[in-house]
Each structure stands twice: as C-alpha cells, then as structure tokens.
Write a structure and sequence with these properties.
The structure holds 2 protein chains of 2 kinds. In chain A, 18% of the residues lie in helices and 40% in strands. By secondary structure, chain A is α/β, with parallel strands linked by helices. Chain A has 2 domains: 2-353, no CATH class; 354-405, no CATH class. In chain A, the strands form 2 sheets. In chain A, strands 3, 4, 6, 7, 9, 10, 12, 13, 15, 16, 18, 19, 21 and 23 form a 14-stranded mixed sheet that branches. The termini of chain A are far apart. By secondary structure, chain B is of the alpha/beta class. Chain B has one domain: P-loop containing nucleotide triphosphate hydrolases (Rossmann fold), CATH 3.40.50. Chain B contains 8 helices and 12 strands. In chain B, the strands form 3 sheets. Chain B has a 6-stranded mixed sheet, with helices on both faces. A 4-stranded antiparallel sheet of chain B has the order 2-1-4-5, covered by helices on one side. In chain B, strands 7-8 form a two-stranded antiparallel sheet. The radius of gyration of chain B is 18 Å and the shape is globular. The chains are: A alpha/beta, B alpha/beta. The interface between A and B is medium-sized, with 22 and 28 residues.
Chain lengths: 405, 256
C-alpha cells in the first residue's frame, strides 16, 4: 500500500500546481536533523515561544484540550489532556494498517501536484493526527503549531483529523517561521467528519517574507456533519496558494470556508476553495475578505458545485485595495448539474468609501484612526455556529491581524 | 458668539452650493435651520464640520473666536463641534458599542453618563450590532444622537434628527436633546465653558417643539433668505410653506 503511494508520488514530483507561481523543489533542503521530544512547552526554543502568541497559541496550554508542536520535520510535543481525544504524530498512526486504509491520502490525492508528492516523499511522514472518539464533545480547542526553524528547508507535514460519529472537535493551528528565514511549507491536511459530527478548524499563518506556502487540504463530510474552517493569513509571504476541496458526501452535511487575507509586501497570493454538494440537502458557503497593500497580488477563488437535489451554496468575495500597486482578482464560480439546487455568489472589490472615513472622523478621529476602524470592521466576520470560546479567539485573531497594518 | 459663519461660499463637484451665507449661534443658544430640499442646509453643516468634499472658496467659519475654516475635522471636534448626519453609512463589522467606546475614550465621558443616555434613548439592544446595518429610520436617528452626545459637543450640529421618525420617538429624541442642551448630563457643566448650543436642520420643526430654540434661519438656493425668532419663522412656514419665504425674499431683492 505505502509502496504504491510512494510510486504515485514519485511520478508527480515535477507536476506543477494548477494555480499559483511554480516553486523549484530542489532549492529546498529536506534532510534536517531530527529534534528530541520535550516534556513541557516551557522547554521550547525561545524563538518558538516568542512566535506562539502571534499565531494564537498558548504555551501554558490554558483552555486547550491538547497540543501538538512540530519544528521543521520533528514533532517535539504531543499531548491530549482529555478523555476520548487522541493526539499523536502521523509516524505513529500509520503503524496501524486500518488507519492507512481509511484515512491516508483518501481526501487528497498524493499525485495532485509536486507539493503533495513532496509531502509524501520528503515530509518525513510527520504531522498531527487528531481523533475525537464517538460522541465525544471536546469543549476546548486542540492547538497545533507548525514552526519552520531551519533556513531553506522544506516543511511538509501530513495532518489527519478524524471526528467520529456524533463528536465535536475544535482545532486551532498556528504556523510561523523563525524571523527572516526562507523556506517552503507544503502541509497536507485531511479531514474526516463522520455522521452528525462537527469540526471547527481555525488556521493562522504568519510567515516570513521569504516563505512559499502550499497547503493542500481535503475534507469529507458524512450525513448531518458540519465542517467550519476559518483561515487567516496575516501579512508577509513570498507566495501562497491553497485550494481546499470539501466533499459533502452525506445528506444534510454542511461546510463553511472563511478566509481572511491580509496581503503585505510583495506577496503573490492565490487562495480559494471548492465545496461539492454531493448529497441531498447539503449546503456550502465560501467567503473571503482580502485586504491588499503594498505590491501584493491576490487571486480569490471560490467554487461551489451543486450535484444533488436540495443543495444550497453561496460564494462571497470582498476585496479592499489599499495601495496603487496592489491588485485583487475575485473569481467566484458556480456549477450545477441537477435542477433543484440554489447557488448564488457576490463579489465586490474597492477602496474605502470617503464618506465612511469622514463619518468616523467627524466623531473625533484622525483619518488614520478612521481607516483602521473601517478595516478592522471589514476583516471581522460574524460566523454562525461558533462556540463563545472560538468566537473570542477569532476576535483576538482579527485584532492581531488589523494591528499588522 | 460661539459660531460665526461669514460670507461663506462653498463648492461641491464644481457647483456652488452655498452662496454667501452669514449665520451665527451664541453660547447656550439653540438655532433652527429651515429650508426646502436641496437648498443647502446639509452643505452648510458639512462645511462647518469640515468635510473636505465641501470646498470653501470664499468666506470663513469662526468657532470660539478662532478661524477654523482650514482646520481638519478632528481638530474641530476637539474644539467642541459635532455633527449628527442626515444619511449615515452602514458599516459592517463596526459595532455601535465599539465606536462609542472609542469616542468615550477620547472625550473622557464617564460610563455612567453613557448608560443614562443609552437607556433614555432605549438603544441597548443595538449596541452589539454593526453600525446602522438593518436599523430602522428611528433606530438610526437614535444611535446618531447617542454618538453625537457622547462627543460632548459645545455646539451640536444636527442634520434632520427627526426625519423618518415616528411621533413617539421624536419625543424621545427631543427630550434627550433638550436635557443635554440644558446642561443636565453629568460632568458637562464642569467641562464645558458654557451650556451647549445647537444648530438644527429640520424640515417641519417637529423636534423643535421639545427644544427652546431662540432663532431660526431659512436657506433657499444656498442663501439665507430669512432670519428671525424661531417660533415666528416656524409658524409662517407651517402655515404657508417655503413659498412665502421665497416670495418675501424675491420681493426684497426687487426693492434693492
């Protein structure tokens, strides 16, 4: 099995991605000396400790059900703090043949492109595996950190999240780099949301301006399951391209993909997502808020496919241009293959309205203060179905993002 | 005088919208500004507030003895000017509470006084909603008044605070504003050099019934055409409409 997977991966090693600028894999080092496990997050290197709060992680683990920290290709801290929740490194999970059969490269194709191939062949078969057992409600989020420390390194973890029938699982992930280092991050994430389970996944990216980022994500949702994702990229990257695929396979399944992009510097960003309404009565929502500054180029995509009766979908792209040299392209796409579906989209790109700026200024604020309040409002989204603890977390992240401007 | 507008000429998008306006508001005085649609009332308030879209090409605005014609809007606010807008933008993501808190931080408004205002205006249920998104006409005007008074203005400029509002709510707005103008809110008296003043644009003067307005101006075609005791002017307009003012003004012009 693993042999076949490896062969497929090898064949795809030079296959460019469908979207985004190409990256030369050979420019990155994947032979990085492994690190030892640590007993407590206090023993993390200082730079990781410093970065953690900037991507919403808490090294005291307050209000966290579990933690997974990986530096470059090595898991350094893996812990579940509650019953019914499993947190382990991938290398351990794949000792189990049935785990491979059910979850390993089942939601993402290993030969999708050179980045998935690289994750399989050069990623060290590490990454987090988080499993919420049947009917287990994990009230506090599990936190995961993927940190890049070595210069010019490839970090390609393979993460798998499983929410068994009737379970609820919240995961917050923060990815960051040591300041100023160059690197390539190509993480694969597979989600399996079983019958009537709920997964809320929040991912915060805060890269250096020399990092190429290519996450690859696939999500399978069964009957009555819910998948909510909130992804924030704040600030600099060399390039970022991602396009999660969500397959709503069970009746009444739901998915929400929400993306917030703050583009700074000369980042080239191509983000999107696809939700396939494959079963009766499924619904999907894709929305993105993009703020482009400096010389950033952003493409915001969103596609919903209606392939079963009673499907409903909505795509929304909002863009805010804050400089003369930045650009935003919004590409919403709808596809229907059966009659009884309802799909809509809206897209709007513009600059801040002068009358809104003056309105705020007339309340006693400088132009700068008014602009920052408006941008903060733009970035903020009310997401339905978030528990208070995650709502607070999202607000904190929004503030953090707005403060980067 | 608290405010003196002298020979003010204002251009918007190449068009002259105010054509030599002279107007004054004294310390502690409430003054009405009346006029038909499109006559220049909003332009006058926006120009006094310092909206850069309203370009002053001639004349000046003196506030507290200081020429503020070229001052940026936030400086004017600091001196004690504030404006409640006729048309308020809907701002998604910015809640009433957030804006209110930012204002209070700047103006050192005590939270007790704010509580008082919030309950007097009955807007508690709106605090955590995005500003004006999905608000009714009355709700928008109440939130405008709340934000305006939170700024503790020495001179409150109100642009049609009563349009699109039902009778009960006009009474609420009128009473709260009157209470404020009488210097009855908390620490105002100690922090302001006098009782606050107001310059109020109103179509039909409904809200004026709750206020002690001393004088009224009538603006037509960007000019002040009439000026007198508030109750007399409102009386004439309610009886005869603005036609009478126009006729009266034309008559005078002919005599000249």
């Amino acid at each position: 099995m693993l042999r076949e997977i490896a062969l497929k991966a090898k064949a795809a090693l030079s296959k460019p991605a469908k979207y985004g600028v190409d990256v030369d894999l050979t420019a990155y080092n994947f032979k990085i000396p492994p690190r030892q496990l640590i007993g407590s997050l206090n023993e993390l290197p200082d730079d990781v400790k410093r970065s953690a709060p900037s991507v919403g992680l808490d090294i005291t683990e307050a209000g966290r059900s579990g933690s997974y920290f990986q530096i470059d290709a090595s898991p350094v801290y893996v812990k579940s703090r509650v019953q019914g929740l499993t947190v382990m490194p991938l290398s351990e999970a794949i000792n189990d043949r049935s785990f491979i059969d059910n979850y390993y490269w089942k939601a993402v194709d290993v030969d999708l492109d050179k980045f998935t191939a690289a994750a399989e062949l050069y990623g060290g078969k590490e990454g987090y595996v988080i499993i919420a057992g049947r009917n287990v409600v994990v009230e506090n989020p599990v936190q995961a950190c993927l940190y890049m420390s070595e210069p010019r390194a490839l970090q390609a973890p393979h993460n798998i999240i499983v929410a068994e029938e009737g379970s609820t699982l919240y995961v917050v992930t923060g990815c960051a780099t040591r300041p100023r280092i160059a690197g390539l991050h190509a993480g694969v994430s597979e989600f399996y949301v079983k019958r009537n389970a709920t997964v809320v996944f929040i991912m915060i990216h805060n890269w250096s301006r020399h990092t190429h980022v290519r996450p690859r994500t696939g999500v399978v949702v069964e009957d009555g399951g819910t998948f909510i994702s909130y992804y924030v990229n704040m600030g600099f990257t060399k390039s970022l391209q991602t396009f999660p695929n969500v397959y709503l396979r069970g009746a009444g399944a739901k998915a929400v993909l929400h993306t917030v992009i703050l583009g700074l510097g000369s980042s080239k960003i191509d983000v999107g997502g696809f939700i396939a309404l494959e079963a009766e009565g499924t619904s999907g929502e894709i929305s993105s808020r993009v703020v482009a500054k400096d010389e950033v180029e952003v493409v915001a995509r969103g596609k919903i496919g209606g392939y079963a009766r009673g499907g409903r979908g909505h795509v929304e792209c909002s863009g805010l241009l804050l400089s003369k040299h930045s650009s935003i392209r919004a590409i919403p796409e709808l596809e229907a293959k059966v009659k009884d579906v309802q799909l809509t989209h809206e897209a709007a790109i513009g600059k801040l309205a002068e009358e809104e700026i003056f309105y705020i200024q007339a309340r006693g604020f400088t132009r700068e203060e008014a602009v920052s309040m408006l941008i903060r409002g733009f970035l903020k989204v009310r997401m339905e179905g978030l528990p208070p603890i995650l709502e607070k977390y999202v607000n904190y992240v929004t503030e953090l993002t707005a403060s980067k401007l | 005088m608290l405010l003196e507008v002298r020979d003010l000429h204002v251009v918007v998008g190449g068009k002259l919208v105010l054509d030599g306006v002279n107007l004054s508001v004294d310390y502690g005085e409430t003054v009405l500004l009346l006029g038909p649609n499109g006559s220049g009332k909003t332009s006058l308030l926006q120009a006094i507030m310092g909206n850069p879209k309203y370009e002053v090409v001639k004349g000046s605005i003196i506030f507290r003895g200081r020429d503020v014609t070229d001052l940026p809007v936030e400086e004017r606010v600091r001196l004690g000017l504030a404006l409640s807008f006729q048309f308020t933008p809907k701002i998604r993501g910015l809640t009433v509470r957030e804006l209110l808190e930012e204002i209070c931080e700047k103006r050192r408004f005590s939270s007790n006084d704010i509580q008082l205002l919030v309950s007097a205006l009955n807007v508690k249920h709106l605090l955590d909603r995005s500003l004006n998104v999905g608000f009714s006409g009355g709700e928008m005007k109440k939130v405008e008044l709340l934000l305006l008074l939170a700024q503790k203005p020495l001179l409150a400029l109100l642009d049609e605070p009563d349009s699109g509002v039902d009778v009960e709510n006009i009474a609420v707005l009128g009473r709260v504003l009157n209470y404020y103008l009488n210097g009855s809110y908390g620490d105002f008296e100690s922090s302001l050099p006098s009782r606050p003043s107001a310059l109020i644009v109103t179509h039909l003067g409904y809200i004026a019934r709750f206020l002690n307005a001393s004088r009224a101006y009538v603006v037509i075609d960007g000019k002040i055409v009439c000026h007198g005791k508030a109750e007399d002017v409102v009386d004439v307009i309610l009886k005869h409409g603005f036609e009478k003012c126009i006729a009266c003004y034309r008559g005078r012009a002919l005599q000249c």
